[in-house]
Structures are given as structure tokens and as C-alpha cells.
Design a protein that fits this description.
This protein is mostly helical. It is 45% helix and 7% strand. Strands 1-2 form a two-stranded antiparallel ribbon.
């Protein structure tokens, strides 16, 4: 937070406006340290959020693939690239008897 103005007694007035990347106010910020005090805090937090999203997508992709959906249909439904689905599919070992027959 940066001071917005100085009072007559010499003290500063601070308005908690937060930052655009993280949250609406400093008091609700999920970072362990302010990005202005520790620039790496924001980078580490963003990477952790990205990993959470990737793990969530991978679980959805696995579920749809095991159900027998085609990888292109899975990609469209989840909103990821077909290549992303192929990478997850490569890590799965789905026996042929459980694959959807066309």
C-alpha cells in the first residue's frame, strides 16, 4: 500500500486497494509476503495456481478418456489443446476392452 495523502499532523492516509494480479485488498491477499516486499512471492504463487489448474484439468481429462471419449472431444469439452489431452493419454494405460468401440 502506498500513502494517498498526508494528514495535518504529519501521518499518512493509506487506502487498501490491493494489486491487480492478486486481489482487491492487501488484507485479503493470499501471498505469504507482499509482492512489493518480495517480488518472488508473486511468481511462486502464480506458479502454484497454474499447477492447481493443470492438476484439475488432468483429472477431468483422465475421467473423460477412461469413459471412452475421443481425445479431440475431450479437448473441446475441457477447453484445452488436443496435444494436452494426448500428453495425458500417453501416461494412461487403458486396456483395450475398456476403450469405446467405434
Amino acid at each position: 500500500m502506498k500513502p494517498t495523502r498526508k494528514n495535518e499532523d504529519g501521518s499518512y492516509v493509506y487506502v487498501d486497494t490491493g494489486c491487480a494480479e492478486v486481489g482487491p485488498s492487501c488484507l485479503e491477499c493470499p501471498l505469504p509476503a507482499c509482492k512489493h516486499d518480495d517480488p518472488l512471492a508473486l511468481i511462486v504463487w502464480q506458479k502454484a495456481e497454474r499447477l492447481k489448474d493443470e492438476t484439475h484439468h488432468q483429472a477431468k481429462i483422465r475421467e473423460r478418456l477412461v469413459a471412452g471419449d475421443h481425445y479431440i472431444d475431450v479437448a473441446k469439452a475441457i477447453g484445452v489443446s488436443a496435444r494436452t489431452v494426448q500428453k495425458v493419454k500417453k501416461g494412461l494405460d487403458i486396456p483395450k476392452q475398456y476403450r469405446k468401440q467405434k
